[in-house]
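Thread: Newbie trying to understand structure tokens

Hi all, I'm a second-year student working on a class project, and my supervisor (Dr. K.) asked me to get a predicted structure for one chain before our next meeting. I've only ever worked with sequences, so writing a 3D structure as a token string is new to me. If someone could post the tokens and maybe explain what I'm looking at, I'd be very grateful. Here's the chain:
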Amino acid sequence: MATIREISEKAGVSIATVSKVLNGKSGVNAKTRKKILSVAKDLNYRPNLNARNLKKGHSSTIGIITEDLTVFNAPEIVDGIAQKLEESDYHYILGNLRFYKRYGNGPRDQKESIFLVHSAVEDMLTKQVDGIIYIGCHSHVVVPLSDHAEPKFVCAYCISEDESVPSVIYNEEKAAYDLTLRLLEYGNEKIGMITGPTDSSHSINRSRGHMKALFDRGIPYNPSLTLVGDWERDSGFILGQKLIENGVTAIFAQNDLMAVGVLDYCGLHGITVGQDLQLIGFDNRDISSVSRPRLSTVALPLFEIGQKSAEEMLNILEGNPSEQHLIQLDCEIIERETTLNRNCFPSAST
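---
Reply by user tm_fold:
Sure, no problem. This is what the structure looks like when written as tokens:
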């Protein structure tokens, strides 16, 4: 690869003049500038970004570490980060811990988890990144991200124990509250709920929002109408049957896969979802828009989480860190055929 010295010799100008042109500085006439750029192209010159970054004192590069790039939330978040960084002339390096592929969720042993995370962070730091955005598989509290105080972090779709680290997530409790109110407004007073595992933060937050909406409307919470699933389609099938036999007129399934399981049961037993029963899921997975009938659901602001995370990182690098530790973005309720056809509910709004 050509050097600045070789370009200066072939172009017949000083090294200082070549340096000015290649660094986009003024003070060189148009004819000389054109000649230098032409010679640089002929010699296949590539700038040494590492050397340039050392002079500037920063790399204009952000590290992104995902707990697993194959999980549905990660690609959109990465895309949001990428767009925001590109707008600010920053680059990024992507690392993938592959937690789901390796373990089915995450390491069972915290020491192993800390080792893997710290190894990924150290690897990023050897690449001279200015900061690291850490993307969780789900909205859990993450292990300490580093042994050192120096790295700058932002968490996306997860929460850091360190209150100096901004954590950008979505407000699932509010989303569950709003969708439950919507079902109540449609005339449903006996609403069943299928949760994820009881130790999941998502189950806890979504259940809290659902119960709060019932309380605010003066409807007693009936524990028998809440059944615990495992996020999988089959549990929606099994638990949906139990809730329907218990006389519910609507079901809130805490993710789309379990909601589609309810659809499976209804399809096999002649129950028309959207007329005989209202149903809403959560996450706006691809399956929700291609199911028949199409599933009402809650869309997560994944792209926006990525953008906000990158914005927070850039603010930190500019010396203007956020005063907020936990930043919650709103979700969007997307109504489709499983709640929009409400002819069987006379008291529903039209």
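A couple of things are worth pointing out once you decode it. The two ends are 70 Å apart (CA to CA). Residues 110-126 form the longest helix (17 residues). Feel free to ask follow-ups in this thread.
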